[in-house]
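User: Before I run my own analysis I want an independent prediction to cross-check against. Here's the chain; please return only the C-alpha cells and, at the end, one sentence I can use as a sanity check.
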Amino acid sequence: ILIRPHPAIWRLVHGMAIIYLVVLTFLLFQ
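Assistant: C-alpha cells:
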C-alpha cells in the first residue's frame, strides 16, 4: 500500500537531495 506524504515533505526531501548533490560535487572538484 502506497501512502502519499504531504507535499511539504517532498519539497524538503528534494531540497536535501539537491543540497547533498551540490555539496558532493563541490567536494569532488576541490
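Sanity check: The chain has one helix and no strands.
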